[in-house]
Write a structure and sequence with these properties.
- It contains 17 helices and 12 strands.
- It is α/β, with parallel strands linked by helices.
- Strands 1, 3, 6, 7, 8, 9, 10 and 11 form an 8-stranded mixed sheet that branches. A two-stranded antiparallel sheet has the order 2-12.
């Protein structure tokens, strides 16, 4: 066991990227694996936390003393934290207020467009004259107020805080100012008076899906618009080791085939959603790689350790970003993938971790039969909670059967 004391260790940072509910589930699995596989690493005692989009939800919990296992129980097991429950439907509640506000503007916009067309039908034409009606289109489909309300309640209990300034360690939730396109670090001076719950809501406001979030008269959207990870925020705070998790990578079908994965359809045959998914993943991952290369030059001597799925990971690519019913399977997948990754990269990672008083737990890592679910069950209560877990297990099993049946049908080309 490394004998470095906490006072002598250089700063450690944790940076989590976005990826919707799927990304948060994957990150939870990775954190659970790191928590049990590494000794000397306390994920609730990190010097600098940086979260982007869904990642800000996880980091805000960790900075508030909510353990990875508690996050698992909340996000995967559908349990409560001090009576607060985050239900799956919270992510899919229609933005009725946004719909109503935009709908109210339609009559005036239509009259204005009609007047413009009738006054200059040849010069402007119908398309130009009625283009202004686009302002009546809602800026988001779903309402993410429920996330802010949940965090506000969860952070107001048992010594937790919804105030950046009252936390033991630095926490940053990165969002993008819609009117300037600039990144904003909530938690930094000048932006640390914003409630953490509101900052997380802004950081996770993915354009098109969630309306921009108004804070002090300005509007904010997803922090991933500028950078994928924003690990430089932790590095600028003096962190010498930054552990990063990125749940989304572009899929390499050729590599998957060479590694023995079943033959898949061409992505174009799966339609627009799959094409858009691959495009989105490729864009954010290329930015991530560019950022990592820059960190190596700009922050010499610092260590950035990244955990992410492999490019041949069919499980992560073919699961919908907003799928919640598959959460147990995806979380277990991330957990096992991370355990394997730690062993595979041991020669590289162990010396790095040792400099920060972090060691490998060989007993945990070499336990081939260990699963995330069995670990969690060991610390669960009895009675009604077990009945509740059994009901969730049954629902997840049915979803698993449906998932794998669909995959078999797809591979055989049965329509």
């Amino acid at each position: 066991m490394n004998k470095l004391t906490r006072e002598r260790k250089p700063k450690i940072g944790l940076a989590l990227a976005g990826g919707g509910p799927l990304g948060a589930v994957y990150e939870t699995g990775v954190l659970m694996a790191l928590d049990e596989s590494l000794t000397g690493l306390d994920l609730n005692d990190i010097d600098v936390y940086v979260g982007v989009s869904a990642g800000s939800f996880i980091t805000s919990g960790l900075a508030n003393g909510i353990t990875p296992e508690e996050i698992y129980r909340l996000f995967i097991g559908n349990q409560t934290i001090d009576g607060a429950r985050l239900r799956p439907e919270a992510f899919l509640k229609p933005a009725f207020r946004e719909y109503f506000q935009r709908a109210r503007s339609v009559p005036l916009l239509f009259v204005d467009a009609l007047w413009r067309y009738l006054s200059s039908p040849i010069e402007r034409g119908a398309i130009d004259s009625f283009a202004g009606l686009a302002r009546a289109i809602p800026t988001g489909i779903f309402d993410n107020d429920a996330i802010s309300h949940f965090l506000d309640k969860a952070f107001s209990e048992h010594g937790r805080s919804n105030d950046f300034r009252k936390l033991k360690h630095k926490l940053y939730a990165v969002a993008t100012d819609l009117d300037t396109g600039q990144s904003v670090k909530f938690g930094a001076p000048g932006f640390d008076n914003i409630p953490i719950s509101k900052a997380v809501q802004a950081s996770a406001a993915l354009p098109g899906l969630f309306p921009p979030v108004e804070i002090d008269g300005r509007y904010y959207v997803d922090g991933a618009l500028k950078k994928t990870l924003h690990a430089s925020v932790a590095l600028d705070e003096g962190a010498r080791l930054v552990i990063c998790i990125n749940p989304l990578v572009p899929f390499d079908a050729d590599l998957a085939r060479r590694h023995g994965k079943p033959e898949m359809k061409k992505l174009v045959e799966s339609g627009l959603p799959m094409v858009l998914s691959q495009t989105f993943r490729a864009i954010i991952h290329s930015r991530l790689q560019a950022g990592l290369a820059k960190y190596g030059r700009q922050y010499r001597g610092a260590n950035v350790v990244l955990f992410e799925p492999g490019s041949d990971d069919t499980e992560m690519f073919y699961t919908n970003l907003f799928s919640y019913s598959t959460r147990k399977r995806v979380c277990e997948h991330a957990y096992q993938r991370t355990r394997q990754d730690l062993l595979k990269r041991r020669d590289v990672l162990e010396p790095i971790f040792a400099k920060f008083g972090i060691d490998y737990d060989d007993e945990a890592l070499h336990d081939a039969g260990r699963t995330l679910e069995t670990r969690v069950r060991r610390t669960r209560g009895a009675g009604g909670e077990r009945l509740h877990d059994a009901a969730l297990d049954l629902a997840d099993t049915l979803n698993e059967l449906k998932h794998w049946a669909g995959r078999i049908v797809e591979r055989r080309g049965i329509q």
